[in-house]
Structure formats: structure tokens, C-alpha cells
Amino acid sequence: MATNLKIASWNINSVRARIGIVEQFLNQEQPDILCLQETKVVDQDFPKAAFQRLGYKHMMMCGQRMHHGVAIVSRIPIEADHRHDWQDNGEARHLGVNLECGIRLENVYIPAGGDIPDRTLNPKFGQKLDFIERMTRWSETCARPTILVGDFNVAPLECDVWSHKQLLNVVSHTPIEVEALNRLQQAGDWVDLGRHFFPAPQRLHTWWSYRSPDFTKNDRGRRLDHMWASKDVAALAVAHKVHEPCRSWERPSDHVPLVTEFVV
């Protein structure tokens, strides 16, 4: 018997600081599973009670004090978590779990990469490219039905940013990053669910800088957050939504949540 499965993904930029809007989102959207990035909390301090009150009794975390961190909270059972160190330095940037329906769910937070798009002048940029390359090697061997979600920190298409011309040399939209992400996508034959439901050149931003007091005024957004799926799982997807109004909520993250609904 087929059932609906709603999976959300959100770079929350500190889950404890923004637990209020997380609860607001969960009450409003009622996803079955929420994947969080940039939780910025060690596992023992993760706000479990807030999620349990809302029925999200299954939780797995890969936390780190003050930086990075990913978590998966769920109303349905999740099991067999594992963590890839794609950053190769122990940072908490990945968490994967199995779902009872046979789908693998991978939650990742790819490094931002600093401000200078040159690995010689900026080691963080090199770390980002190496991270994506390690993911690509993993992707080549990924043979299970899989959903890959998270903050990829790359806006791959010209229409994924407010100005391709002005951001061409800005980290997150440089040709070398786009080429690296394209190789990752090709290695796993991943379906980009955002562009599956909202084909280019439709506007589809997920991030706006805090530097603009009113993000809607100039709408200088980028599509940094993504949901990909192996082809067999993508065929089960029936809806996808970017929850842009969350960017206007009290004490918002600079990212907004994505939700994809599947019939499994």
C-alpha cells in the first residue's frame, strides 16, 4: 500500500537560537522528516524535547560545538546512521540514515569555501572543491535508492542567482564550483528535484544574505540548497516546495526550507 512521505531540508543556522521558527515550520508544514544543517550544537545539547513534543521521536545528530553540524528528526523510524568525513578533518557535515521503505537519506552540509575563489590564496576554497570531489567518488558507488539533501553552497545554473554576470567570480557560483557540482550530479545520475518541478529559467532562490535589511527589496537570492534523488526515487516524487515566507519570520535563518513529497 502506497503512502505519502514528506521530507524537509533546512540550513537553520543554529537550531537552538531558532527553535521557535523550527517549531512554527513543523506545525505548519507537518513533514515526516526534517533534515537540518548548520545546527551548531554538540549532540548532548541538541533540543530533543522540543521535537519530541511535536511527535518527532526519532532523532540522529552529528554535532559540533558552535560550528557546522547536521541532524535528522523524524516521525517515522530511521536507523543505521553513518557519517562520511568528506571534509577529511572531522568536521560534522554529513549524516545518513535508512528508512523503512528501503530508501537511503543522506543529509550534507558542503563548506561555503571562503571569499576568494582560489585554492592557493584561500585554503577553504580548496577544501570545498576536495569535499565535492570526495562526494563524487562516493556517488560513483552509490547503487541504492537514495535521496541526497542539504546545503550544497553552490548555485549551479545562471538562473540560480540574482545576477549571473555579477556573481560569476563570487564563491558559490564560479565556473570551477559549478563544474565540480555537475560532475557530482553526473556521477550518481542524480535528479535535481528543484529543477524537475520548477524547470530553468524559473526563479528558485533558497538563500538571501543578512546584509540586506529587507531581502525582498532587491531579491538578491541564490539557490544554494538542494534536493537530489536517484532516478528510481525521483520517479516517486509528486511535489516540491521552497518555503520562502520563512525568510521573513522572527530571527530567521538566511536559508529557507525545502520540502519534497513522495508516494512510496
The CA-CA distance between the termini, in Å, is 8 Å
Assign the CATH superfamily. Endonuclease/exonuclease/phosphatase
CATH class: Alpha Beta
CATH architecture: 4-Layer Sandwich
pLDDT < 50 stretches: none
Q: What gyration radius follows from the Cα positions, in whole Å?
A: 17 Å
State the strand order across the main sheet.
Answer: 3-4-2-1-14-13
Oligomer: single chain
Number of strands: 14
Overall mean pLDDT: 97
Strand content: 25-35%
The structural class is alpha+beta
What is the third-level CATH name, the topology? Deoxyribonuclease I, Chain A
Number of domains: 1
Description:
The chain is an alpha+beta fold. The protein has helices at 19-29, 48-53, 123-139, 164-167, 175-188, 193-197, 215-218, 231-234, and strands at 4-11, 33-37, 58-62, 70-74, 78-82, 94-99, 104-109, 146-151, 191-192, 207-208, 221-222, 225-229, 237-242, 258-263. It has one domain (4-263): Deoxyribonuclease I, Chain A. 25% of the residues lie in helices and 26% in strands. The strands form three sheets. A six-stranded mixed beta sheet has the order 3-4-2-1-14-13. A six-stranded mixed beta sheet has the order 5-6-7-8-12-9. Strand 3 and strand 4 form a beta hairpin. The chain starts with a strand and ends with a strand.
Topology:
Blueprint: E1 4-11, H1 19-29, E2 33-37, H2 48-53, E3 58-62, E4 70-74, E5 78-82, E6 94-99, E7 104-109, H3 123-139, E8 146-151, H4 164-167, H5 175-188, E9 191-192, H6 193-197, E10 207-208, H7 215-218, E11 221-222, E12 225-229, H8 231-234, E13 237-242, E14 258-263
Parallel strand pairs: 1-2, 7-8
Antiparallel strand pairs: 1-14, 2-4, 3-4, 5-6, 6-7, 8-12, 9-12, 10-11, 13-14
